[in-house]
Design brief:
single chain; alpha/beta; TIM Barrel; nine-stranded parallel beta sheet; two-stranded parallel ribbon; globular
Length: about 400
């Protein structure tokens, strides 16, 4: 018996069985098919003569099957709560701490559900140094109290004058000329540099995977920048960060290489991949590489935010939606009443208030992006999930 497991994409008719959706491709109707061509994820094609296949076994593959059990639990939790609940969150003040979360707790008596760290200072990290991402104390203390961890990466490269690091592309001394298009040349020094940096981040994430901690991983954020279909990357219409400066093709390849390196090479199946979208789908890495689609809102009104929410519904119907950064937007009560049911929302940090928890500024209820009035409104909503309300995802 020649049993074939068909779980690759082939387009022309759709088979649905117990949550498994497979898209088939053939040149004729089912009863007339002589050969079936199966295009694999690696780009190769398998050819089968249907007359030589005695049976086909369809395997029930659950949604998010390539994620760890803890990651699937969190994804399922968010999916089940869509329209009912939203996860509250904060960004660490600059890099690797819980200062913003502690500030919210100080003034409200509640901790947000998510604490997002930033690997922005990865190049300076070392044991005993002023920043050490290998130190597991921060994320362990947070997750041991059932808090959720998110992570992003302001991926800095050497400046053109060689004196510092930045993620801002350009020709000026304090900008970087590093190009993401080197991702197409695995033999290049630039490619090897990127892989080495990705590998380092992976090493810091591995203990979380071992501890069964799911991570909302949001790399390569805001890649599109001011790029538009009409003015693709010229003048003002260019990317804000170097990983977007060569346009969508290079960005998508970089995202997929990072995904493959982290998930398949390093085994980080605890990562939940969050893609920060712009208004062009050309930048979208693909459904198999993305779990959550997000947007960063600053100084936006309710109508503008609703337009983005509807854009996501139209273009990413099978994904979860999130506000991955924000500052000075309508209160949660207004968003929820408007039918904007995001899965999580995380305000940007305010170093003036939260860089030093022992300072007088830390006592202030003001905040550049989300003051205590915002938090009191959010925490008074039945839809808002705080840390103490989270289940155990491990």
């Amino acid at each position: 018996m020649n049993t074939q497991r068909l779980n690759h994409s082939i387009h022309a008719w759709r088979v649905l069985t117990a949550g498994l959706a497979m898209l088939f491709s053939a040149s004729m109707a089912m009863g007339q098919v002589q050969n079936i061509l199966i295009k694999k994820a690696d780009g190769t094609t398998l050819k089968y003569n249907v007359n030589e296949i005695e049976s086909i076994t369809f395997e029930d593959i659950p949604k998010w099957a390539n994620r760890s059990e803890s990651a699937r639990k969190l994804l399922t939790y968010m999916a089940d709560n869509t329209g009912e609940k939203i996860l509250s969150g904060v960004h660490a003040c600059v890099n690797y701490n819980t200062n913003e979360a502690d500030w919210v707790y100080k003034h409200t008596g509640k901790y947000p559900a998510i604490n997002c760290i930033d690997f922005i200072h990865d190049i300076y990290s070392k044991s005993g140094g002023w920043i050490n991402y290998a130190n597991q104390t921060i994320w362990k203390n947070w997750t041991n109290k059932r808090g959720l961890i998110a992570a992003m990466w302001h991926w800095n490269m050497p400046t053109n004058d060689g004196t510092s690091y930045t993620c801002t592309p350009g020709e000026a001394d304090d900008e970087t000329s590093f190009r993401p298009s080197v991702i197409f040349d695995p033999e290049s020094d630039g490619y090897k540099t990127m892989i080495a940096r990705i590998d380092q981040i992976a090493e810091w994430l591995k203990p979380m995977a071992t501890a069964k901690v799911p991570v909302l991983w949001r790399p390569l954020h805001e890649a599109q920048g001011n790029w538009t279909e009409k003015y693709p990357g010229t003048g003002w219409h260019k990317a804000w960060f170097w990983w977007g400066i060569d346009g969508p093709e290079a960005f998508v390849e970089l995202w997929r290489v990072m995904y493959d390196r982290m998930v398949n090479y390093h085994g980080l199946d605890n990562l939940i991949w969050v893609f920060t979208s712009g208004d062009s789908k050309k930048w979208y890495p693909g459904d198999e590489y993305v779990d959550v689609v997000s947007y960063d809102f600053y100084n936006k009104d309710l109508q503008t935010m609703r337009q983005w929410y509807e854009f996501f519904q139209e273009n990413f119907p099978d994904k979860l939606y999130a506000i991955s950064e924000f500052g000075n937007i309508p209160k949660l009560s207004e968003l929820w009443a408007d039918g904007q049911h995001w899965s999580f929302m995380i305000p940007w940090w305010d170093s003036t208030r939260t860089s030093d928890p022992s300072s007088e500024a830390f006592n202030s209820t003001d905040h550049q992006n989300a003051n205590i009035d915002y938090w009191e409104d959010a925490l008074s909503q039945d839809c808002c999930i705080t840390r103490d309300e989270l289940p155990n995802f491990r």
